[in-house]
Amino acid sequence: MKILVFFISLILTSNFAFAQKYSTKTGKITFEASVPLFEDVYAENNNSTAILNADTGDIASLAMVNAFTFKSSLMQEHFNENYAESAKYPKTSFKGKIVNFDKNDLSAKPKAYMISGILNFHGVDKQVQSSANVYLKDDKIVVQGKLVAKTADFKVKIPKMVAAKVAENVNVNYNFILQK
């Protein structure tokens, strides 16, 4: 009986153990929420973690909110303290799937995909869709994409006195160079 349980466990876990996982700890995520005639609202994080299961197309990413850097330290301080509340919500994450992904279709030529999943920011989970290009470069998988997030969807409150200076729709871009 113990041998049977051992072999069943081995069979069930073998797919996970042999899955082709690609990851990075230096992924780049940027966001831009600028409006015309006012100062640019732009930040980037170059230390995002991402992992891709190349066998299933499952993809996940994680970024520390306070690691987003702005051109102005005051803007960064306001973002972390007043809007993102990074002391209370220190991480932003995404967990989803590259739709119709097949690792055998990968080449040096970028291929367009949709990525669907749950984005968590400011303590709120939201189903999102993202367009992305995926391709091979030097035995690494590159995933580059973008999405638009609404501040209201994530319960981010923008004070009325600065609301005209910050876009309601935030353009998010990401670039992950994933390796085995």
TrEMBL record:
The UniProt record lists the keyword Signal: yes
UniProtKB keywords: Signal
Highest taxon of the lineage: Bacteria
InterPro entries: Lipid/polyisoprenoid-bd_YceI (IPR007372), TTHA0802/YceI-like_sf (IPR036761)
Keyword Signal among record annotations: yes
Classification via Pfam families: YceI
Annotated signal sequence range: 1-19
Residues in Lipid/polyisoprenoid-binding YceI-like domain copies: 21-179
Protein's UniProt name: YceI-like domain-containing protein
Source species: Epilithonimonas mollis
